[in-house]
Every structure is written in structure tokens, then in C-alpha cells.
Amino acid sequence: MLKNYVLIAWRSLKKNGFYTIINVFGLALGLLSCLLIGVYVLHELSYDRFHARADRIVRVTMEFSIAGTVNSTATTGTKVGPQFARSFPAVEDYARVFLSHNIVRANDKSFDEPRILYADPDFFRIFSFPLSGANPSTVLDASDKAVITRSMAGKYFGGMDPLGKILISGGKTLRVAAVCDDPPPNSQIHFDFVMPFLNLGNSVAGETWWTANWFTYLLLRTDRSAGLLQQQINAYMNQAEVRKEAGLEGKDYLAYHLEPLKRVHLYSALEGMEPNGSITYVYLFSLIALLILLIACANYSNLATAQSLARSGEIGMRKVMGASRRQVFFQFMGESVLTSFLAAIIALVAASLLIPYFSFITGRPFRAEDLIKPAPLAGLAGCCLLASLFAGIYPALILSGMRIMQVLRKGFHFTGGRGAFRQGLIILQFGISVFLIIYTIVILQQMRFIQTRDLGFNKDEVLDLPIGGNMLNDFQGLKDGFSRVPGVASVTAAYDLPDFIQWTDGIRVTDEKGPRVISLNAQPVDLDFVRTMQIKLISGRDFSTGDLKRMEVTDSQGKYYQPYLINETLARRIGWTPEQALGRIVEKNVPGPVVGVVRDFNFNSLHDPINPLLIFLGRGYSRHFLLRIRGQDKAGTIARLQASWKERLADRPFSYRFLDEDYNTLYLAEQRSSALFGIAAGMAILLACLGLFGLAAYTTAQRTKEIGIRRVLGAGAAHILMLVARQFLQLVALAILLAAPLAWWAGNHWLDGFAFRVPIPAYIFVGTAGLTLGLVWATVSFHALRAALSNPVKSLRSE
User: Fold this and answer.
1) For a disulfide at 352, which of 267, 368, 390, 695, Cβ 3.0-4.6 Å?
2) Coil, helix or strand for 220?
3) Per-residue model confidence as pLDDT tens digits over 338-363
């Protein structure tokens, strides 16, 4: 019997090849979206779960308020880990980590390595990064030990055994104590080398609550102790002696929060060593995949009912020959299962071909092998069965329940509430499509705004050359050498890049209201920073060589000269106009005059408002040379810079990046989301049009004789076209009216995450409505025109 069902189903699919192609294509698109998005969702949900002790690991984040300004950061001071381990029995161990770059030399090879992780000795005991033949508790217990990944072992030592081999980095000689597997893609912590934390030098030699540059992880004794520990930490940080040690006064506070490791990637608002994901996007993309599959199933159901008109005689004859309702039901369900099976095969093949592109737009290293793992295959099989059930059960139940004499005498007709059901489906399909189109356009407009907004400085044609090693010892010589390279317009240096200033600090000011402390961001820079970055001065002047010379002189009383620049926001926060600020004294460790006020510029993501900013002359803090180059011959200028670099830094590889490229990385999550939403919107509108195509086929088939009569009575093709299209245009118009307010609300809700955002213009809604109605008109016109232009005599011959 099963073989017979399959054979008849195959013959039926071959006989109705055109509709079969549409059905299979529609279901394949739905299953393809579920498969790809399912792989993405599984990857996001798997972050950091591979660690054996993941349930017991928490990340410590820092929140503090100084003078009423609240700041939060994922980093802490050096004191947090050891002090919490000493004070709270619930803490079994801790690890402080810091990701940096430096030159690594080994085996006559030298590279500027961007992923050197400095970690406490028990790092590998807490985290499950597999080591080859080494004790996790001892691989970092001495200052001359280092751990490298397998890829670095091959890069530096080829086929040789790397254990015991010598590395030189940061002026230190280290030996390879262990080889570690490369961190998997679903890890927040990625590294190529791991070196002892204390090798960072004086900056980590002591313990301090402040100078929050380090990520701190705690290993708890049980996976249920985090809640109680959080309460204990809150009480501890409010003790008078702790507040005094941290230098807190009045309403100022310092607090630490525990984030379970497995929740950091998707739930934390504070980014770590790589950009976070978003549980909202995981839920949203999962919902979109299911909605696309639902649209595909509705399409199949609509097309199956449309085709049933031509099969009423077949069904009647089967019943006359003794077929039961159960047999007819399973016959149609068999066709649904076979169609879904074919669609699943096509979806799997298409996914394997599209996985490189999907990997590119999501920023995740997916491979074709990820599609054939048990979880994705089980998900595909489940979606296939659900699609077979939901797509096939409605037409199977209706067709198998027809009465024999009614079918043989009058044919088959759908009436009553089922028409409302189909109309509801078309409203749902196009409502989803319109929502996704509008939402995607809003995201794309904001992305364009981000790319074109005047940030207050010019990020174009600026090269970033990282500073490391002993480069600061010959700072002026390097700067002068770069300045003499033809094509270089100006050179400066800074601690942070101007598009992402992370240094948080505070200043003390005294005015008519008395002494006050103000929390702010700070940026140490070299001379020519304002000129090179083309930041506008509102009042005063830039730093000068005279300032630098005065800073180099300390009198017998220990007085130190330190000039400052402030931005407009800081001037307003203090209560000064740009002119009033000139010459006023502010104190950041050292008191000094304000020599200029710069126009506000966006030194962080456009998600955030512009905060108070203090710029001070401090070339000794520099981590980046910033070179503005002329645009006529960029390649030649870079080649000449490389030659100048090798002349002065022969032992250090030349590396650079453009500042505008770094700026774009701040919005990778939004760029990837807009691409995914665009693809989803395209698939949804395509599938909705397929569904409309099926309904149009059904409607024109139901009204063939009516159209023939109208044609005989003189109705023209335009009249017939409008007669058929009117109902669908009304349904889609209703879908637009329902979806547009939801899309407007959702778009504004998303844009509220940006301090600087675009408005949502009305033309987006008008354009989307026009595009959708135009697609509907074109889709329906195919069937309507074919019916209108057919010979009415043929359609009336059976009457």
C-alpha cells in the first residue's frame, strides 16, 4: 500500500509539473531559511558551553558613580580577583586576563602578533582549553613560560616539536611550556599566545580597585552560589574601610556585578574581548525563520486547493471504485510528504552552497560540515515533517471528505469560512513581508547615516601605526622620519583611537560653587592631534612645542606644568562658556590650565551620547601613530612609509590599518543584521507572491465560467483584470495598514538604541506600499489576463 501511495504521488507531481516546481521551490526556501538560521542560532546559544566548568565561571563587571555620573565597564582593577578569593569562601579561584599585541620572535621569524593573552597562573585550570601533555596548573607558574596554539606552533616551528623552544616578546625570553588547541569559534576568549599576567610589569604589580583595564573571571565552588556571593560583594563594597580604601566620598560608589559565563555573549550589555551577540536577535531571527516556513506552508496549501478543481473527477472516481476517506486522505498527505522531502534535499544542497556567503554576512566561521551535524539535521527533519503536516493536512482533509455524487455532478467548490481562512493567510503573508521591508529600510538608512555623518573629526585617509616595544624611546625620531615621507600631510600620536576613546577618569575643578569632581573620558595625545584629526577649535589654541618644553622642566618645588584641552560638553558640565574656560585650572592628578576648547566630536559609538572629554599632552602614553596622508598616491605613500619603518625599526614588522576601517567595525552587528533582515524580507515577499500566485490561480479557475459570460456580454480585458485583482489588492492594502504601524514602532524602538539617529520618513511607507501593490498587480495579472484573453466559448461549452 505504501509503495502504491508513493507511486501515485510521484505520478501526480510529474503530471502537474509547473505547480510542483512552485510547491517544491517555496517549501525549499522555507526550509533553507530554517536550516541556515538554525545553524546560526545553535552557534550563538553554544557560546562558552564547551568549558567543563562553565556553570561555575562568572565574569566580574564594574559599575561606579563619581559626582553623580554612573559608568559601567566589563573590566576591573587588579585587586578584584585576589581580594574576592581571599574574602569569600564561595570563590575557589580567579583569573585576570588582558589581550594585547606585541612582536614575537622565534626560530628566525618575527611577526607583530595581535592576540597575546596575559593571564594568571590558573587560567587553564579554570577554562577548558585543551593542552598537550601539560599540567594546566603549572604551565604559567613562572615568568619565563608561555603557551602557544597549534596554529602558532606550525607558523613558527613548522613540523618541529615546539615544547621547550624559545620565544622573545616584550623584551622577555620565554620557553614554550605547552601547546593549546586553537580556541573554537564559539569562545569569547580568542588568543594565539598566553603569557603570565605579571609579565605586564609595573601596571599590574600592585593591587588597586581602579585602573580598570583587566578582565576578571571567578571560579565558584558551586554553580548555585552566584546569587549569595553577589549579595556578599554588595555588602562588602559598602563597608566604610573599603570605601575609604577606594577613595569614595559622599554618594559616590563602586560596585561589582557577576555575569554567568554562558550568558555573557548574548545577554551582557558590556562588550568583552570580542563583540557580543544579542538574545533579541536570536529570538527575532528564529521567529522570522518560522514565519517564512509558515508562509511556504500556506503557499502549498493554497496551491493544493487550487489544483483540486482539476482533480475533482479523479477523486470522485476513486471513491466510486471503493476508496475510503482514509485512503484518499493518506494519498494527499503522501504527496505533501514527498514534496517536503524533495524540498528538504534541495534546501540542504542549497545551504551547503550558500554557507560561505552566510558565514560572511553573519561574521561566523560556518562550514558545510556544520549542516550535517546531528542537531541541524534533526531540526531539518522536524521542520520537514511539520511542513508536511501543516501544508498538507488542510487540503487532504477537505478533498478526502467530498461527497461522490456532488463531485461527479457539480465538481468541487470551496465555500464558507474557508475563504476567510485563505484571505487571512494572504494578509498574514504580506503583513510579514511589509513589516520586514520597512524594518530593513530603517536599518539601512541608519547605517548610511553612520557612514556619512560628520563625526567632528575626519576619519578618512588616516593611517594607524601601532606603537609597541621600545618605540617610545625614539618617539621624536620616528615622528620626524614619518613626517618627511612624501605624501604624509601630518603626524600625531594618541593613547586611544579618536573613534573609540575608552580611558575613563575624573577631574577636580573649583569655581564659584566650590570644588567639584567630574567624571569623564580622557585622551593623552601628542602635538598636532587636533590638526591631524581636523578637529575644530571653538576657542583658544592647540598644544604647542612650548607646552612640551615646559612639561619637561620641573622646578625645585616639584610644580609640574600640564596643559589641557576640553570639549564643549565638559565646558557645559562645569558651567563655563568656551571663552570663560580659557585659562581656568582643572586637576587630573596635576593641576593645569585649559588652553583650548574643541568642538564636540563622536569619540565613541553613535549608540552613546557625547560625554565630557579631557585631552591632555602626554606622548609617553601613546599606543598609536596617526598619519594623515594625501589621497593622490596612497599605495606609493604606504610603500615609502614601509621603507622608512624598516630603516628605523628593522627588527619590527610593518603593520598598519586605516582609521575608517576601524570605525566600521563598531557597527558590524548592525551591518550583519541589516543584511540578514534584507534577505529575510526578500524571501518573505517572494514566497508571499508565490502564495498569491496560487490564490489567483484558484480564483480564476473558480470564476472561469463567470469570466466567459462577462466576455460574451462585452466586458474588456481591463475590466476582467480589475475584477480578479480587486480582492487581492484590498487584502494586501489591509496587510499594509496593519503592518506599517508595527514596523514604525519596531523601527523607532531599534533607533532608540542610538543617541544619534535618523527620523523615519513617510516615503518609506509610501514606497513600500507602492512596491508591494505593484508586485501584487503583476502577480495576479498573469492569471487574470490569461482568463480574460481566452476564448469564452471554450469556458462555456460544458454548460
Assistant:
1) 368
2) strand
3) 888 888 999 999 999 999 999 988 88
